[in-house]
Q: What sequence folds into this?
């Protein structure tokens, strides 16, 4: 029930909807984009505004072609029915791209974290920076030309550290690129060269970032880390190990974009040689190659390594179980060290680590707890990732970010 304000202590009036609406467009779009505001009532509460202001904001986002507002009643509870909100299914898209150790992926992506018919291709014969980035740009451009929706930008996930703000690649070990390769500038040049068709923004903005960072962003916004404040993601894909930390909704990338290189935490000083030159890194002790080495097996070079490693992790044989336990013990040591330093409220595992978690959940949790300062009483939840193709989804988030911050920038496109 609404209270009457006392004559001498009237509450400060809320700012009119027109004054507040413009600054609220970004936060409102973010809430709809991440599924946190499925109705106008939920949006009103999340933004802490009046119904009139929420109505003005949603009307503006609808006019920009970014969301839909369905006036049909949502739910059957008490009170006035609320309008339903959703991202516009025919709204603009971005291009998401990812380079793996043994292939490239690309997809169109609308708001809401949904990929549209992703494609996965082998690496081109030439993997020097210019020709590999050109292949990625041309793959994305082909998707844009075939689309019936406006294309606003392109984001690229790379399997190596990327400095901020200059966008150079460090330790691009999979391809032998020189350290300090200016990938952001090179990729932008290739994007400008490509033909994205008549429905694309005239000069398509591009951005690049580390794949593990982008996967963590995807999980925080659309997956297993959605309600986490301090989310630690650790993943092993085709080769190597990556990690990322999201704090209060923002990636923690350090002073130059190089934070959370968890793959080079030492878990066995006498262990396997890492491409970085050290021994026993998490990177070389818990990736697909490490699992095959622990099982005393050699993967078939004619088949994708990652798929073979997943099959081995799930195999119900003494040899496979022993290999899983060996790698899980190393993974647990690395996670425990990270927990002691970072104190996350959730650990999300993806890639091969998701399969290791599924194969030995209690063993992994016990190793982490035994090595943590707070022990079993302070056990951190270790959960499987939920977002499929999280690196691609994260690349889409990267491309969408300027428009999530300022939805009216869509009109400039």
A:
């Amino acid at each position: 029930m609404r209270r009457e304000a006392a004559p001498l202590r009237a509450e400060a009036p809320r700012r009119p909807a027109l004054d507040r609406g413009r600054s609220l467009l970004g936060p409102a779009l973010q809430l709809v984009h991440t599924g946190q505001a499925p109705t106008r009532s939920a949006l009103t509460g999340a933004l802490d505004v009046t119904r009139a202001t929420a109505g003005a904001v949603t009307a503006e986002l609808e006019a920009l072609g970014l969301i839909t507002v369905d006036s049909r009643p949502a739910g059957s509870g008490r009170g006035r029915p609320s309008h339903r909100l959703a991202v516009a299914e025919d709204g603009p898209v971005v291009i998401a791209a990812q380079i793996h150790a043994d292939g490239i992926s690309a997809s169109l992506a609308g708001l809401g974290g949904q990929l549209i018919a992703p494609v996965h291709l082998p690496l081109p014969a030439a993997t020097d920076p210019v020709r590999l980035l050109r292949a990625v740009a041309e793959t994305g451009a082909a998707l844009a030309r075939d689309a019936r929706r406006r294309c606003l930008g392109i984001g690229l996930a790379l399997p190596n550290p990327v400095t901020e703000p200059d966008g150079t690649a460090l330790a691009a070990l999979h391809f032998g690129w020189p350290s300090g390769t200016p990938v952001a500038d090179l990729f932008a040049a290739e994007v400008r060269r490509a033909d994205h068709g008549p429905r694309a923004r005239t000069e398509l903005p591009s951005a690049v970032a580390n794949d593990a960072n982008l996967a963590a962003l995807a999980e925080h916004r659309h997956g297993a880390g959605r309600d986490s404040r301090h989310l630690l993601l650790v993943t092993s894909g085709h080769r190597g190990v990556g990690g990322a930390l999201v704090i209060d909704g923002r990636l923690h990338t350090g002073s130059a974009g190089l934070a959370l290189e968890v793959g080079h935490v030492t878990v066995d000083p006498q262990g396997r040689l890492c491409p970085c030159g050290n021994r026993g890194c998490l990177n070389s002790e818990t990736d697909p190659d490490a699992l095959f080495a622990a099982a005393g097996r050699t993967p078939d070079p004619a088949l994708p390594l990652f798929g073979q490693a997943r099959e081995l992790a799930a195999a119900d044989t003494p040899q496979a179980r022993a290999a899983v336990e060996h790698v899980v013990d190393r993974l647990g040591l690395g996670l425990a060290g990270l927990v002691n330093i970072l104190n996350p409220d959730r650990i999300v595992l993806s890639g091969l680590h998701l399969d290791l978690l599924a194969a030995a959940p209690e063993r992994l949790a016990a190793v982490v707890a035994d090595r943590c300062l707070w022990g079993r009483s302070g056990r951190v939840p270790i959960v499987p990732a939920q977002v499929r193709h999280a690196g691609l989804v994260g690349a889409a988030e990267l491309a969408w970010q300027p428009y999530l911050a300022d939805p009216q920038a869509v009109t400039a496109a």
User: Anything to note?
Assistant: Confidence is low (pLDDT under 50) at residues 1-18.
